[in-house]
Every structure is written in C-alpha cells, then in structure tokens.
Amino acid sequence: MKNINNKAIDHNTNDKARLTDNKPNGVKLQWHWLLSSRVQQLNSKRMRPVAKSISGKAIFLLCVASFLAGSLLFTNRTTSDTTIKAAQSISSRHVISSIPNHVEKLSLVTFGCDKKRKKLAETGLGNVMEEVRKTQQAIQSLDKTISTLEVELAAARSWTSLQQQSLDHLHKDSSNYSSNSSLQKAFVVIGINTAFSSKRRRDTLRETWLLKGNKLKKLEKEKGIVIRFVIGHSAAPGGVLDRAIDDENAEYKDFLRLKHVEGYHELSSKTRLYFSTAITIWDAQYYVKVDDDVHVNLGMLVSTLARYKSQPRTYIGCMKSGPVLSQKGVKYHEPEFWKFGEEGNKYFRHATGQIYAISKDLAIYISVNSGILHRYANEDVSLGSWFIGLEVQHVDDRSMCCGTPPDCEWKRQGGNTCIASFDWSCSGICNSVKRMKDVHNACGEGGGAVWNVDI
C-alpha cells in the first residue's frame, strides 16, 4: 500500500513538473516551492503509518489554486513593467518637449552675452579712440612748442648775425648814427615813409611836429625816441634823385636809406625791409611806420606805446577791414582778390597804413622770415597778413586815425588829444604841404609834451 501511494505521488509530481515547464519563471518558482513543501510533508508521513490517503479531488483543487496564484503574480509584474515603460515614455516626451524652451533660453543668454561682448568691445574701442585723440593733441602741442622754440632760436641767431652785419643793409651814407656796429638802445624808432618827390612834405614836418637839428639828437639821447625819413634808391643809383637825398641828409641827418628801389607798387617790400633794417641799428621796444602826410603828436604816441611795453607781440593801430577791390584800374586794386573769397568780400582786420606800431619781437619775426613773407599790393594788408596765425595782440586805437579839424580840434579841447590826424578821402592830409601847419596849430599837443612823457 505504501508503494502504491509513493508511485501515485511520483506520478502526480511529474505531472505538476510538466505543467510548470510551460509557465514563466515566476510561476515555476511558486510551483517549486509548493512541491518542495509537499514532499517534506510526505517524507514526514513515511515515518508513521498513513491513516488516510489524499483524494484526487483535493489534488485537483490544489493544482488549480496554485495556477491562479501564479497567474496573479505574473499579471502584477507585467503591469508594473508597463507602468515603468509608460512613465519613461512620458518623461522622454517631457524632456524632448522642453528642449526647444531650453534652446530658446540658451539663445537669449547667448544673445545677451554677445550684446554685452559687443558693448564691451565698443567701449574698449571708444577708450582706444579717446587715447588716440589725446595722443594727437599732445603731439600737436609738442609740435607747437617745438615750432615756437625754433622761431625763437632763429630769431636769436638772426639777432646775433644782424648785430655783426648791420651795415650790410645800409648805404654807406645813410646817417651818422649807423657808423657804430653796436646796436643803439631806444624806446621807439619812428620811420616816416617818404619819396623822392616829397621834399616839401618833409620840410613841413620839420617845421611842425618833427624836431630837427640838435633837438632831434637830444630827443634820441634823453628820451630814446628815434625819428628818420625812410627811403630807398632810384632805378639809376647815383643819379640826380639819389644825390638830392644825399645832400638833404647831410643837412638834417634824419634819413634811413634802404637797399630798395623806390616805387609805389613796392611799398610792401619797402615796409618789410624797413623793419628788417631798423632792428640791425636800434634795439628798440617798438618800431613805428607813418606816412609823410600825417600829423602826429609825439607825446601821445609815446605815452600810448608805454602802456603796452610789458606785453609781447603787440600790433597797435587803427584797425579796419576795407573791401577787396577786384576791378582793374582803380586805386588800391588787389590783383590777388580771388584769395579773399567771393567778390565783394572784405579784408581781414589790419591796421590802416597811415600809421601803426609793432613790438620788437614782431619786427624780429619779419626780419627772420622776410624771404617767405607774401607781399600783397597794399602794404598795410601785407603787414596784417604776416601776423595771421600768430599769437599777436591787436590793439585797435581810434586816436590813431582822427580826422583833420574840426574833428581832432574838438577832441583836443575835450581832453582827448589824438595821436594822429589825416583825411580818409586822401589817405593822408589833403594838400598836406599847405594844410599841415593849420592842422598842427589846431590839433597839436604843444612843443613840451613829448619831453614830459614818463617812459
């Protein structure tokens, strides 16, 4: 009986094993556990007699229960795997869908960085340009300083050279005051522009405001006021005109002769040469040019110049800006009118040519650069053009261009004595030979004024 039961159990076990071979691994494990438990129970029962055998119905129910348990475990595992995969799929879709947003954000950040980088680059470029500008300004300032030093050095060299060669610019009979090679100290040198045909004009000046003889020498010695008629030579040196001037100079000793051929259209060259020559003879603080048909009060002139003696590069006169005359044949025609702009334009400000004064440093400047100073048709325009671009103080003194009586007379009576008087219509005193004495009597400051000036 025992052997029959064992065979039945083995048979059932084999059937269950074959069934489990067709299930998944999870179910096989369950079956294996159940069978192991059952075998242990049976082995324990071998030790004692079996009271009752297990029926086939119970075995069948056991098998069905085991099958249902294995199916339930398999379903749970499958559901779990599906849920995990679904979650992974959702996560992947979320990641993929969020990529454009991150790309957009990254683009914004990149754009911002590029903008900041560009701004930084522009700022850096601006700083570089600012440094370049400052460097250029420093270079320009240095160039200006160097140019100034070069001019001053050239002036010093010229001054030394001119001291040694002063007589080379003069005629051997210019005056008794040019025989000494050393420079003579003076406060002002007044050069009266004259011509060969102006003998009578010169005589009227000597009889009015211009001192002569011993008084002229005394004025030069005591007050440092040098006065000379300035004239060149004729086109035929040694001719009648030149000999007449030599004779006149021998009598009055008040001429400064220039190495210059006289001519109305050469006034610019004559003016340039006058300043260049005067500084080789006199070491003065001021150099004045005046025409021989103008009335001058020497005391007023000297006292006015004394007010500016501490200021460098001074250009004093009655400043004007007349029209540029382009029409040929008229007086004061300007052949180079096109340089002054459109037709109808005016000249730059310059002192009227009847009388003006310049300080010593400007006279030296003219002498040093005389070879390259441009000369226009009108000498006053030429002088004004030489100072354009320089640090020159223009002093506009209207008392240097008073009219003839009654204008200058009324001003004198009012306590405003004029420095110079003339008629604008004649660019000097009209018919000065006849009227100079009348102007002097009406507008003169008095013979003793110049001696009382404190220089």
TrEMBL record:
Biased region (Basic and acidic residues) positions are 8-21
Keywords for this entry?
Glycosyltransferase, Golgi apparatus, Manganese, Membrane, Signal-anchor, Transferase, Transmembrane, Transmembrane helix
Q: What class of enzyme is it?
A: transferase
Give the residue range of the signal peptide.
Answer: none
Gene3D superfamilies in the record: 3.90.550.50
What is the membrane topology noted in the UniProt record heading this document? Single-pass type II membrane protein
Q: Which InterPro entries match?
A: DUF4094, Glyco_trans_31
Pathway where it operates: Protein modification; protein glycosylation
**Region span, Disordered:** 1-21
Where are the membrane-spanning stretches?
A: 54-74
In terms of domain of life, where is this protein from? Eukaryota
What's a Pfam family this protein contains?
DUF4094
Q: What is its main location?
A: Golgi
What is one term from the GO cellular component aspect held by the record? Golgi membrane
> What cofactor does this chain's UniProt record say it requires?
Mn(2+)
Which molecular function GO terms apply here? glycosyltransferase activity
> What subcellular compartments does it reside in?
Golgi apparatus membrane
Enumerate the spans annotated as DUF4094 domain.
Answer: 55-158
- Record-listed E.C. numbers: 2.4.1.-
PANTHER family assigned: BETA-1,3-GALACTOSYLTRANSFERASE 8-RELATED, BETA-1,3-N-ACETYLGLUCOSAMINYLTRANSFERASE
Q: Which family does it belong to?
A: Belongs to the glycosyltransferase 31 family.
What is the name of this protein? Hexosyltransferase
Provenance organism: Cinchona calisaya
